[in-house]
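User: Structure with iron/sulfur cluster, tokens only please.
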Amino acid sequence: MGSNKLSRRNFLKLVGGAGLFGTGILAAGCSGKTAGGKGWIPSQYEGTGNWQAQVKGRIAIASSNVSIERNDSKCILCGQCIEVCKKVMSVYGSYELPLKKDIPCVNCGQCSLWCPTGAITEKNNITDVVKALEDQNKYVIVQTAPATKVALGEEFGMEPGSIVEGKQVAALRALGFDAVLDTCFSADLTIMEEAAEVLYRLKNVQNTLPQFTSCCPGWVKFCEYYYPDLLEHMSSCKSPQQMLGAVAKTYYATKMGINPANIVSVAIMPCTAKKAEAKRSEMNASGKEIGNEHMMDVDLVLTTRELARLIKLKQIDMTNLDNQEYDSILGESTGAGKIFGVTGGVTEAAVRTLYYYATKENPPASLLNWQEVRGLKGVKEATVDVPGFGTVKVAVCHGLKNARVILKQVREKKSPWQFIEFMACPGGCIGGGGQPKSAVPPTDDVRTARIASLYKMDAQQSKKRLSYQNDEINTLYKEFFQEPLSEKAEHLLHTHYQDKSNLFTAKKDL
Ligand code: SF4
Ligand code: SF4
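Assistant:
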């Protein structure tokens, strides 16, 4: 490089904040199709050549970001992180410069999936978990999200979508966790509350319809950033991760005779945004119960990738482990809880129970295989007739750019829907930012394989497919909550949201 030019090292320093100052040269576009389905895939990777010609900049990541971080020495300024943040999530470039108080980030971690060099990763919490496991005074519980069960195996050479639920349980026991619980249990619990909530809104407060799902923290933060005027539509239900955390340090602790202050609650998630969700100041309902507001419901979150690293670190032979079952209690789940991990799954699960709440009858077979809400199309719509109640219209979207399409209609009061599911990541949580990088960037083939496995777990491997048939859930209500939306349930299982629009100035007409 000539003396009149910047050295590569200094150039890297200069553009390190490209996202912050808007100096990055934008990456080439996606393949030119819409953001949904096949259009997720970028058309770049032009190959080697003059590196300066390929520099496209990179996103800026705040040092305070609790979900992701970047090792600048690995960054080649390829611009893939910008590509996904802008074209799929519609976050990068959605704000005026200069920024005010925050570098906008919904914590989804998609950039870490697309980064070809591994420069962007999740914030590492493996050491914290190991420390907790080695502390004899702590009772360390762990929960596993549905999407991890069809992806963890990929880190050990298995085919995309391999179902490793039982092996994952065995691996966690081998690591020394005191109890292995299931986020699918609390997905069923979420459905009990969320379906009751939508029924309440349908009957009593129609002006707060459509009801938005709230189990994806990436989506929730996106709404808080850009659509705070629509937050009244957001379900007050906490996500399954946080519901299990709150129940574990209250009901479970009492039943097991454990001091909740001695519990370390760990979650294995496909998601980097879950690390941020666990740290939200509102997520301390169990702590408030015992007068300790510093005690959080969930203490530590590991991504699927981090769990794989921990298993390898401890030299556990994952592939040869025998399947094991979850602990009881907080370990039983239905097929409805399992499909939470795919786009459309929350809607399908919720409508199955909504149908039951409204009619006191089990839903028809069509709602156990609801094709209209399935698949990788970016925005999906469907209707369901609930006898004696009427027609309920639903919409489902994934990828936050697609969310804007729907939100525009809601804002303009042109929405025909009563219930809308939003998932930040393409494909839903199976394509989460903490999942194995089995293809870089992620492909629809990998997503489709994982999706098929979760539907298989629902349709072929679950004895029950309806959340209200979960015996442990019914016992929980009988012994503790009494009924969905009870005062205790409101306290432990529901939350509120914050208008975050003042942290930066969002561009208009996004
Ligand atoms: S995707 Fe990774 S390597 Fe490429 S610019 Fe972003 S951080 Fe750097
Ligand atoms: S879609 Fe799932 S993995 Fe992605 S941010 Fe939302 S909760 Fe996390």
